[in-house]
Amino acid sequence: MTIEEFGDVMGVDLIIRRYANQKNRYMCQFEYAEVKKYKGEPGLRGLYGTGKCASEAVQDYVTIIKGKWLVINAMTDRRKEFGVPDSLTL
Fold it and tell me: What's the pLDDT tens digit per position in 33-68?
């Protein structure tokens, strides 16, 4: 499954941002997503991928979230949790 297909399953946007004045640094993450290692883990972390171009940032994010759990809208009544496939690709 690609990261785009996984975003469609979750119904969230994949955000890619270029930071000005930072030597072409890019950031990538799913909108409103936080990460935890396994289902039932109490702590959440706001993780994102980085790179010198958009595709590097997306690949870094894919590597970071593979096999983990994404929590969307964690502190709202619209909270959803999704297990990220180990086979996730760019």
Answer: 999 998 888 889 999 999 999 999 999 999 999 999
Written in H, E and C, the secondary structure of the chain is CEHHHHHHHHCCCEEEEEECCCCCEEEEEECCEEEECCCCCCCCECCCEEECCHHHHHHHHHHHHCCCEEEECCCCCCCEEEECCCCCEC
pTM over the 0.85 mark: yes
Catalogue all structural domains in the chain, each as residue range(s) with its CATH number: 3-83 (3.30.160)
Residue given tokens 């409103």 in the structure block: 32
Task: Give the integer Cα–Cα distance in Å for 84 and 2.
Answer: 11
The pLDDT of residue 73 is 97
